[in-house]
Structures are given as structure tokens and as C-alpha cells.
Amino acid sequence: MKISERIKKVPPYISAEIDKKVADLTKKGIDVITLAIGDPDIPTPENIIKAMEREIHNPAYHRYPAYEGSYEFRCAVARYYSKRFEVELDPDTEVMALIGSKEGIVNTAYAFIDEDDYALIPDPAYPVYKTATLFAGGIPYTMPLLKENKFLPDFTKVDKDIAEKATIMFLCYPNNPTSAVANKEFFEEAIEFAKKYDIVICHDSAYADIIYEDYKAPSILSAKGAKEVAIELGSLSKPYRMTGWRIGYAVGNNDIIKALGRIKTNVDSGQFTAIQSAAVEALSGPQDSVEEFRRILTKRRNFVFKALKDMGFDVELPQGTFYIWASVPKGYTSASFAEYLVDKAAVVVIPGNAYGEYGEGFFRISLTTPDDRIDEALSRMRKLKF
């Protein structure tokens, strides 16, 4: 059996590897607590479930869905953008349904990367940006996200020769894994850079509504000139706890949306329309469950932050996402510290280097674990010597 060269270039997906490790330890009778994966433990809101129960009986929805997504769903996304970001979108030309934003990342890469094209990729970052580039035959070019620059890429440090050969740039704010946030001025800087070098921006905005206190994460589309070069990928997975439903959207530049659509019509048949109808209820219905989820996450964030600080970790209080990004203790690498926690406390975190070279020296904790299990994990960590 011959396996393609592109598969050989791509490492195993980190979440799948963690799931396997947890399963192996559990089989041995070990009580493992995972603080690794960003998969909300709070159920999908009841109004969304009821909408799904109702819509699933519509026989029209049992046939193939519209490739670009149902008109009702696209209109709901447009209304959400108008209300949330004061960004106006044409549902016919500037909105497309996705089978989750992860799918959108990969298919956007296929739409804009040819063999040996460069893609500008932040590091540390969600691994799919790099793997999508490799699948498309492109060359990943690292933009370091450094603590001293608030985990924002410095566009002045991008090699000009590489920028000339780049066709796409991936960004993500609020950021996974660092929890960093970006303002409109940063997006405007990114847009000017993209215009100068004729680069498409693909902004992963999965955590736009996982925010704390008075902070409001901006859309890149609210920045001047964004629709000339950018699309934004959104997901209902995080705020509405719909990770298993696989529903998201791409919005922005019409030509980019068209190119993405050309790929999608040839590789998938769209998302089940009943799921899209339930997503309409999520976006257009009561938002009190999102506020309640934020309150739960705020409590967990504050609790974990204080506990880590008390244990001597170098950590900052995040304004967005449901992750805590902290420095490992002296004498440890990211990997050795993560291994130490598993071996000595049966607590799973993600080592920062799993997100790239510049993630070395950090680890990530997810807040999507029940309160009592977070408390137990931290209690186990307090008993260790770092």
C-alpha cells in the first residue's frame, strides 16, 4: 500500500493523540483529569435542541442541502454581524455555510495555495493552518507570536521575498492557544500588509463570543478595507456549545467566498439543513445561555488563574477564549512538564510546543471541564514539586 507524501509530511493531530493517551490510562484504572481539549462540558441550549427536534421532521430537509447554505441561515449570520459588529453583509454573496470552521480553513487553503506557494502562519497556532498548507502543497512560513509583543505577529519582521511569494495569511483572535486579543488597529495593519503583497487573509474567529467582563472582540471585517482582502470564519461550536453539530460560516470578500465555494461544491454536499435551521435559532433566539456560559467560564478562569499564581506560575488573566496559557516552571520543557503532570498527577494539559516552535516554554489549560474536576486537578498539582 502506497501512502501519499502529503500524509507523511503531516504529524498526528494533537487532540486525537491526547484522546488516545487518556483512553489508554483510563483502561489501566487511572482516574485521569483532562484539561486539554476545548470542548465545552455545558450542554447545547434547550431552545436549539427543540428547534432541531422540530426541523428534523421536515421531509424537504432530508434531501441534499443548498451548497452555499440555506438562505435562512445566511440571513441569520448577516443579522448577527450587523447587531454584534455593525458589519453589513450580503447573504447572497458574502456569506457561506461551513461544516464547522475547521473545514473552512482547509478548503480555503486549497482555494488559494498552489504548489510551493507560501502561507504566512502564526506560531504558536491551531495546527490546522499548517497542515492545511501542507495538504495543499504550500510552504508554511512562521510568524512568531511573542509574549513581549502581546502574542501578535510583527509584520515588519516578515521576509519581503517570502511576502512576495505568499498567497494567504492565517490569523486568529481571540487567539488559540495564547488567549491573546487584537484590536481594530491591529487588523488594519494586517489589511494594509495584505494589500501591499496581494495576500488573502483568513481570520479564524471561533472565539469572538468567548470574552470576559467588558471586552468585545472585534471582527476583522469592521476594519477599513477588510472586504478587499479578507474572509472571517466563525463557528457556533464555542458560544452555543455545538462542537458536535459541525456548523459554521465564512463571511467577507465575495471573490474569496466564490473560490471557497468552488472547492466545497466539489468535495462536500453541505451541512444537513435541519442543523442549519437549529443554528438560525441559536443566532436569532435568546442569548441568555451565552451570557450564562460566560459567567461560568469567568468563575473558572478566575479560580484557575489564582491557583496557578499561588503555585508560582507565570500566567496572565485572559480577556478571551476559554484557555489559560502559562509558562512552564524552570527546568522543564513544555513536553517534560506535560509528561510530569500526567505521570505524577494524572492531569492532562497540552504542551505549548504542540502548537509550534514558539509555543515552547508554555502549556495550555482548557476551562471546559466541570468545576469539581478542575478543583481536583489543581489540588493534585499543588501536591507536586516544581
Give an account of the 3D structure:
- This protein is of the alpha/beta class and 386 residues long.
- It folds into two domains: 5-43 and 288-382, Aspartate Aminotransferase, domain 1; 47-284, Aspartate Aminotransferase, domain 2 (3-Layer(aba) Sandwich), CATH 3.40.640.
- The protein has 14 helices and twelve strands.
- A seven-stranded mixed beta sheet has the order 2-8-7-6-5-3-4, with helices on both faces. A three-stranded antiparallel beta sheet has the order 9-12-11.
- The longest helix is centred in the C-terminal third of the chain and has 23 residues, at 288-310.
- The radius of gyration is 21 Å and the shape is globular.
- The mean pLDDT is 96.
Features of the shown structure:
Aspartate Aminotransferase, domain 2, 386 residues, 2 domains, 14 helices, Aspartate Aminotransferase, domain 1, alpha/beta
Number of domains: 2
Classify the helix fraction into a percent range. Answer: 40-55%
**Largest beta sheet, briefly?**
7 strands, mixed
Assign the structural class, choosing from mainly alpha, mainly beta, alpha/beta, alpha+beta, or little secondary structure: alpha/beta
- Name the CATH homologous superfamily of the largest domain: Type I PLP-dependent aspartate aminotransferase-like (Major domain)
Evaluate the radius of gyration: 21 Å
Low-confidence stretches: none
Distance between the termini: 47 Å
**CATH fold-level assignment of the largest domain:** Aspartate Aminotransferase, domain 2
CATH class of the largest domain: Alpha Beta
Q: What is the overall pLDDT average?
A: 96
Extended strand count: 12
Shape: globular
Per CATH, which architecture of the largest domain? 3-Layer(aba) Sandwich
Q: Please count the helical segments.
A: 14
Strand order of the largest sheet: 2-8-7-6-5-3-4
